[in-house]
Amino acid sequence: MSLLPHQIELLSPARNAAIGIEAVNHGADAVYIGGPAFGARATAGNDIRELEQLIAHAHRFGSRIFITLNTILRDDELEDARRMAWQVYEAGADALIIQDMGLLELDLPPIQLHASTQTDIRTPEKARFLQDAGLSQVVVARELDLQQIAAIRAATDPSRTTIEFFVHGALCVAYSGQCFISHAHTGRSANRGDCNQACRLPYEVLDSQGRIVAHEKHVLSMKDNNQSDNLRALIDAGVRSFKIEGRYKDMGYVKNITAHYRTLLDEIIEEREFSDAPLARSSSGRTTFTFTPDPDQNFNREFTDYFVNGRKEDIGAFDTPKTPGRAIGWVTQLGDKWFELEVSDKATVLHNGDGLCYYDLQKELVGVHINRAESIHPKKGIWRVFPKDPIASFKDLRKGLEINRNRDMDWVRALEKKSSDRRIGVWAQFQETADGFALTLTDEDGFVGSATLAHAHESASDAAKAEATLREQLGRFGASVFAVHDIALQLSQPWFVPASALNQLRRDALAALETARAAGFVRLPRATPVQPPVPFPEDTLTYLANVFNHKAHDFYVKHGVKVIDAAYESKEEEGEVSLMITKHCVRFSMSLCPKQAKGVIGVKGTIKAEPLQLINGKEKLTLRFDCKPCEMHVVGKMKKSVLQQHRKEMQAQPMQFYRKRPVASIKV
Known about the structure:
eight-stranded parallel barrel; six-stranded antiparallel β-sheet; alpha/beta
């Protein structure tokens, strides 16, 4: 079983356990984090003991911890991966996020399995297959629109599979799992957690006649994903798990973005409370913040909602892969060691250590680190800025130039402190017993913790003061994760009870409540695959299926696949192939799409989807356009140096599967 159909899950990333704990504190219903190895962020592994601390903290709130085991694996790595799966299960983890189907052929623990973004789920048929194969949560491709997501929801069973969708963070330009440029050029594989991010590089774009279409543009670099305005529509389309990208991101990013989406989702849950289809958080408690969440304060390449509402022209960060920040003013004067800046909002305060930036005349982003900032004319909003680097080193810095701020030290410092408080609501009942008193705590999930106190019944000389003391001492929940909503006193008369006795009674009742919650926490159950095994939607798999071990091969054979090629990492595809498949289209972004030109008089029929060339230094790639599905293929081949570098590895770990369809045997 997955999430209940009315439950909403906010799924946050964590590079380490400390960040994961803060994600929970800032309202995450679930956190995904790397285990000791085999995660799709190769340098983001975590020790089991640290994971145990995070898991224990999350489970106090009913939040879940998902471990990423989402690289493709060689045969010699399967046993280590199996052992790691058991390790994290025994540590209390709630699910494994996987890409490699070979894992399903191993003796895994009874832990829930989720399909990684690397499984490239674009169709209802693929989602349905993974559901029937035993995966309880599937993250659908970022490139899908609302209608396509709804079609996947209609093809799957909400009681068996949760639909997950990325709502924020960096966008991989390729369909996830369908990018091999890094491996072809460097031997580092994105499918094995080690991408060199060739998509963020600048390229010269040439047409079929060799003419320059664009010079030094980051044409494969996308703006960052932000679905803040689409959450209601995504819920209506069937999404129930809202995923934030960022397992490499810092503490401040995770705090801020988790708080941002927690606030938005809570608003939606509240507004639908009395509707025909009410929603609920999938974990416990309410979260308050010491700051106002603001996605613009973190590193971003500006924002796009990508393809959720259909194809748009403005999805690329073609000028720079850096963060441009937010415009705050313009240069009014230049000195030998400083420049003056007039801020557009007079309330804006600059700080030592802030980061500023501007675009030079070539539209390249230039960064300015403030060493010292002085307010010259507060009423006019004039600031004198002394940069860390010499003024002469800043290209095209001049009067009238617009300046952005992309790092606000005041904001950074605020998020370095405690910035949230997450509490589970509790109702308290204090009553007298034959030999003393009892305190019963009932939390918002119905768990109960009770404690008794043997104490003589002493009449209170001051009834009002006695009651005030009772309520004050019993309501001191500050050091716990609980917040008392109401204290009911069931007493025959006002009694005097010492504050020390009341404090001990409260502590004992809280400990009993924590014990009851821990005992009542239910691990997510592992789904049972449909029997007999359902057929895979296709009977032929190319290198694009990322089959890198014999267990994965056996899995697909069991599900009716007849022809299986080995993964690109096996080095069998030595010629030109599609190294990246993407919904993003360079022709469309540059207004060179035949469909765009279709209705333009004088242009109709003259623009064709001819290939383009991308050049970065010695690297050359070809862009080919498949207009029927509206997709772009980045075509190239593996470098000889990569082939040579891995020749020994290929000999040690041969991966050749079927290269042609087997011939049926003839019965005599």
